[in-house]
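C-alpha cells for chain A. Residues wanted.
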C-alpha cells in the first residue's frame, strides 16, 4: 500500500500522484495483496501476457485469461484506471456530491460513461448491515422531492391540495448514538408497517429508540423497545438526551445533495444516491485519503453492468 506520509490529500495532489504506473500498482495491491491468482480455479500459477496486458492461468485444465479489473467494479471498463481513481476521489470527498457532467469534464469522457461510473461507485459505497444496533438509537424519516415554493402555480396548488408528501419519496434513517453512523433506506411510504420492518431488521430489542411524535412509531413500546419521542409540532426538538437531531443532520446533508447537485434523480436509482450520501456521512471524520482508500477497498467482487442499471434500456 502507499506510504502514509506520501498520500495526497487534495484533488490536485491526487491527479499528480496517480500516474498510470502508480495507479496500476495501487489497484494491484488492493485486488491481489499476495500476488495474482486465477478467478476461475484460484491457482497462483499465473503468467503475464505483456502484449495484451492480461494474465493467464498456467493450469492445464483452466488456461483462463483475465485482467487486473476482472472481478472488480471496473470490469469491462473503457476508461483508464487513473481516470477511475480521480472520479472516486471526487465522489467520496465532494460534500454535496458531484454530477456526471462534472465528472465527464474533469476526467475527459462522455457524460453517459461518467453516469455509469458514478452509479458503479455508488454500488460499492453501499454498506451491508453488520448485525443489529444496540444501545441508544435515533429513528426518523424525510421526504425527498420537488420544493413546492419553486413549482409553477398549477403544480404548486395540486401538491398543496394532496398533502406535503404527494409525489415525494420517503427516506428512513436510523442513527447509532454510540458510533454516530447512519443506516438509511428508501421506503415506499411512511407507515407503521414500513417502520416496523426497517427498525425490526436493524435495531435489537431492548434498545432505547428516540423518534419524533409521529404515530407510525407508536408500536415501539409494546414491541420490547424503550421508546421516547419529541413533539416537533409543538416546537419541542430536544428534551434532555431525547432528540433526533443526529438524523436531521444526515437529512440536511442528503437534501443539499439533491437540491444542489442531483436535481432530479430517477426513483428507481434513488437508493444508490442515498447510499452515496450515507457513506460520506459515516466517514466524515476521516481524512480525504482515508475516505478514498475506504471506498477503493470495496471494488473487488462487485459488478454493476449498464444493462442491469438501466433494465436493458438505452439512456
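Reply:
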Amino acid at each position: 500500500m502507499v506510504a502514509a506520509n506520501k498520500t495526497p490529500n487534495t484533488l490536485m495532489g491526487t491527479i499528480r500522484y496517480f500516474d498510470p504506473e502508480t495507479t496500476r500498482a495501487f489497484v494491484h495491491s488492493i485486488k491481489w495483496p499476495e500476488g495474482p491468482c486465477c478467478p476461475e480455479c484460484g491457482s497462483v500459477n499465473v503468467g503475464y501476457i505483456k502484449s495484451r496486458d492480461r494474465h493467464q492461468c498456467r493450469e492445464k485444465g483452466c488456461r483462463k485469461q483475465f485482467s487486473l479489473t476482472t472481478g472488480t467494479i471496473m470490469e469491462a471498463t473503457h476508461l483508464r484506471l487513473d481516470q477511475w481513481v480521480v472520479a472516486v476521489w471526487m465522489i467520496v470527498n465532494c460534500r454535496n456530491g458531484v454530477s456526471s457532467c462534472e465528472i465527464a469534464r474533469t476526467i475527459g469522457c462522455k457524460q453517459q460513461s461518467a453516469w455509469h461510473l458514478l452509479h458503479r461507485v455508488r454500488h460499492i459505497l453501499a454498506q451491508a448491515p453488520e448485525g443489529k444496533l444496540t444501545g441508544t438509537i435515533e429513528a426518523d424519516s424525510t421526504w425527498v422531492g420537488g420544493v413546492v415554493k419553486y413549482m409553477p402555480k398549477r403544480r404548486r396548488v395540486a401538491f398543496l391540495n394532496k398533502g406535503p408528501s404527494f409525489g415525494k419519496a420517503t427516506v428512513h434513517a436510523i442513527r447509532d448514538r454510540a458510533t454516530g453512523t447512519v443506516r438509511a433506506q428508501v421506503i415506499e411510504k411512511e407507515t407503521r408497517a414500513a417502520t416496523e420492518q426497517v427498525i425490526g431488521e436493524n435495531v435489537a430489542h431492548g434498545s432505547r429508540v428516540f423518534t419524533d411524535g409521529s404515530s407510525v412509531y407508536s408500536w415501539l413500546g409494546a414491541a420490547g423497545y424503550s421508546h421516547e419521542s419529541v413533539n416537533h409540532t409543538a416546537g419541542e426538538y430536544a428534551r434532555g438526551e431525547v432528540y433526533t437531531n443526529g438524523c436531521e443532520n444526515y437529512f440536511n446533508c442528503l437534501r443539499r445533495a439533491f437540491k444542489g447537485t442531483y436535481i432530479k434523480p430517477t426513483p428507481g436509482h434513488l437508493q444508490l444516491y442515498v447510499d452515496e450520501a450515507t457513506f460520506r456521512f459515516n466517514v466524515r471524520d476521516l481524512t480525504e485519503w482515508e475516505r478514498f482508500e475506504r471506498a477503493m477497498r470495496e471494488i473487488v467482487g462487485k459488478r454493476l453492468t449498464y444493462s442491469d442499471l438501466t433494465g436493458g434500456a438505452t439512456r
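Residues 175 and 246 are 7 Å apart (CA to CA). The longest helix spans residues 245-260.
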